[in-house]
Design a protein that fits this description.
Blueprint (H helix, E strand, L loop, with lengths): L3 E2 L5 H16 L42 E5 L6 H19 L2 E5 L4 H9 L5 E4 L4 H8 L1 E8 L9 E6 L14 E4 L5 H10 L12 E4 L3 H10 L4 E5 H9 L8 E6 L7 E5 L4 H13 L6 H5 L5 E4 L2 H4 L1 H9 L6 H6 L1
Helix pairs in contact: 2-8, 3-4, 5-11
Length: 335
């Protein structure tokens, strides 16, 4: 049976862990693959000989990993304990298909999740849209699936919410207001707004004050409570919040909505044994959402579908390039 790994993290410990991660990333040294002919934006620990933008598996078979226990993490959320229960049926399925024990790892931040996979403590993970390129380039994460519908559709939109009585009707009305972004690495909560909003007549940090709430949940709840005038959030998150009765949809309205972005990427570590990777993919693509807590939580999702990081994350990489994001240890530390 799988068990949960839980941690109590104080702000001081978070700061220390962040510094340690930055230092570790800043000096890969002995881990660098000096004989790598092509790695693109990948860290020096990895190679990309086939040019698909993700880390190749080690050519030295002795470096391949086939652990008895797999550690799985889902992207940081407001209440990890709730999501541990939601993921329970899938983890049982993953155990059955792979023949491995599986532990659920409740991560505290995007940086901690990236660090855990880079250090070899995390084997399978769901990374949020924006942090996915950091996971790919700094941790050797290989995206292979995301949640979708039977017809192959997937994605979410960036929605800008405000209270119905706020007086805000257009994007230009955000000027001079207090707007909640989620976190620096978030795509819909920060990166996309910074890249897209100037063309809509309002520039973050110049035309309005940016306040980081920490999560889409907190941004939305802050708008409802009147703590923020408006907030850019991910549609899939606020939809689930409404289904759980965490806010009254009648109290808010959408000012603007983007075209769809890819959702959370499901990845495995690049150095897992090929047979294990095949079993992991089999577990994801054979999982039946119907009648499970996972299916109830992610309404409209019926299965995991295969993806290409090179193709499906192109728009995200372009947004981050526009914002000057670099997939380096210093870039992650800055985020």
């Amino acid at each position: 049976m799988h068990t949960a790994i839980t941690k109590t993290v104080t702000p001081v410990r978070v700061a220390l862990a962040t510094c340690a991660f930055a230092l570790a990333l800043g000096a890969p040294g002995a881990f660098a693959q000096e004989d790598c002919a092509e790695r693109g934006a990948l860290d020096t620990m990895y190679c990309d000989a086939d040019g698909d933008l993700v880390a190749d598996a080690p050519t030295d078979e002795s470096m391949l990993e086939d652990p008895d226990t797999l550690v799985f993490a889902y992207t940081p959320v407001e209440d990890p304990a709730v999501y541990e229960d939601i993921w329970d049926p899938f983890i049982e399925h993953l155990e059955e298909v792979t023949g491995k024990d599986v532990q659920f790892f409740a991560v505290q931040s995007n940086s901690a999740e990236v660090e855990a996979m880079r250090s070899g403590r995390l084997h399978i993970a769901g990374f949020s849209t924006g942090p996915t390129p950091f996971a790919v380039n700094l941790a050797g994460a290989v995206p292979f699936a995301l949640m979708g519908a039977d017809d192959g559709r997937f994605g979410y939109t960036l929605q800008v919410y405000t209270r119905t009585d706020s007086g805000i009707e257009t994007m230009e009305d955000l000027a001079g207001k207090r707007i909640a972004h989620t976190s620096p690495t978030s795509n819909s909560g920060n990166q996309a707004p910074r890249a897209l909003f100037p063309d809509l007549g309002v520039t973050p940090d110049e035309d309005y004050e940016v306040t980081y709430s920490g999560s889409h949940d907190q941004s939305m709840l802050g708008v409802v409570a009147g703590d923020y005038d408006a907030a850019p959030v991910a549609s899939e998150v606020v939809d689930r919040m409404a289904e759980r009765g965490l806010y009254d949809p009648e109290e808010v309205k959408i000012v603007w909505e983007s075209e769809p972005f890819p959702t959370t990427s499901y990845t495995y570590a690049h150095n897992l044994a090929p047979e294990l990777k095949e079993k992991i993919e089999e577990a994801f693509f054979s999982f039946d959402f119907e009648g499970t807590a996972l299916g109830e939580e992610f309404a409209g999702v019926t299965k995991f579908i295969p993806i290409s990081y090179q193709k499906d994350w192109a728009i995200i990489r372009q947004i981050q390039k526009t914002n000057g994001v670099e997939y380096t240890p210093q870039g992650l530390a800055a985020e």
